[in-house]
Amino acid sequence: MGIRERMSGNEAIAVAMKQINPDVVAAFPITPSTEVPQYFSTFVANGTVDTEFVPVESEHSAMSACIGAQAAGARAMTATSANGLALMWELLYIASGSRLPVVLACINRALSGPININNDHSDSMGARDSGWIQLYSETNQEAYDNMLMAHRIGEHKDVLLPVMVCQDGFITSHAIENIELLEDDKIKGFIGEYKPEDYLLNRENPISVGPLDFIPHYFEHKMQQSLAMKNAKDVILQVTEEFAEITGRSYGLFEEYMTEDAEAAIVLLNSTAGTAKYVVDALRKQGKKVGLIKPRVYRPFPVDEIAQALSKFKSIAVMDKADSFNAAGGPLFTDVTSAMFIKGICEPKVINYIYGLGGRDVKADDIESVFENLLDIAKTGKVDSVFNYLGVRE
Amino acid sequence: MVKVTEIRWHGRGGQGAKTAMLLLADVAFNTGKYIQGFPEYGPERMGAPIVAYNRISDERITVHSAIYEPDYVVVVDDTLLESVDVTAGLSEEGAIVINTVKEPGELRDLLKGYKGKVCTIDARTISVDCLGKYFPNVPMLGAIVKVTGIMDDKAFLDDMVESFKHKFSHKPEVIDGNIKALERSMQEVKGL
After folding, report:
1. Model ipTM?
2. Which of A158, A279, A344, B8 gives the lowest tally of CB atoms within 10 Å of its CB?
3. For the whole prediction, is pTM greater than 0.80?
4. Is A364 an interface residue toward B (CB < 8 Å)?
5. Which of B38, B39, B63 sits opposite A278 (nearest CB)?
């Protein structure tokens, strides 16, 4: 029935890694993800895991070591945040382009500059086109669960892509909350042994990884990579269903909260979804028809499903914890509106809010003000401003 | 809506307010509650004012923001009363618990007209008597549990014995002193 526990989001990630018992973990500390390798290195020191822990000198090296290990035929994992993820930049593309299912815990933090250690999504949003599958997590529980599903998704023969599991730095990574852990043996059975078809250290069938790939084949390889990302959607759903069978916790591509008869809905990622649910409950008590859509799978982007889910609303606010600096809207907004457009869904009025950058706290009142604006738009059909910064001081 | 008890801790870096917040989350968890325990996020510096938070409920807590309208406030260091607006948003149905040698009535002037319950506890004397050193967080934990009544006194103390056994497995000689500090703070807190 699971193990009732309480722990922070970082500890939940480290415990998931312990239960996964990967062959290699290579990591470099950076706030707020530091606790992940910190907890994990005690598991290594105590002999609770068989993992080769590589304390590298930078995140560039951390991802390089993971790529080397994964290419050799090992299961490799790491954790990072913000500028650590940015320093992994070129390697992120090499991991995905080499089709190596490395798993990374991204503890979301604002990218410098100016220097800021608090939460927003500018780090992982910057990596959205790097070819990694991206799963977002509202709570420590979801981060743990996504982590346990990551290998099954990434290692699937129709996918073979790296997976990034994101959660909000400090807000969930450093908050103690209730969680239900899974027994070790169940996880072992669920994840299984890693048996790659081709790998560097296979003497029976030698291959090379990461060679020059010029005009004759590079384009075809990118097409295959694109197809793999397309395949990932079904694989995620299959793995998620199997996970629900052993845990009773079911997830989808996104969560729909009180959306059935809603007129106005918010779309956002990670921890603020919890605050939004609280506000939805409060406004529902007042008879206001509001709801929430929380994407879990951001890469691949569930275009058809999300467009369909949004088609029934009169007004929608997509909320981004990162600005694209395109002077037009954040990354989630661009993806959502593009999905709606290509599916021919043009009825709902859609606006964008940039919120919570650099850890600016998002209160229930802030979310309520967004819903009030949306209900007003639903009533009048009039949009004053499409692109907004929520609660910013002027 | 579900009643959530919200507690805000004010302390100074190094006094253990964060540890007390984590211990409170732990004991509430052990009595079957849903809990949140989190510090204000930022760089920690010894002696600088810090804030930490607890939410405790019988049902799942989804809100992920700081606490602006707490039911209870704990002040681990009374020198903060002059520099920090400790009663900001504090419910008048609730209480503020302050570590001080002063009487509750003497502090009203510093509390910006707060009309709710003012409770005091001399955590320094208790800590020095029981532990030989000044660790205000354990007496403050005892005081806030008593003031909120969020759990039964005995269940709390029994749970803390187990918790300290685990936490101080490398120095068991401090367990008795810590339990004594909790018991005394629960008896000596004034203004209930």
Report:
1. 0.94
2. A344
3. yes
4. yes
5. B63
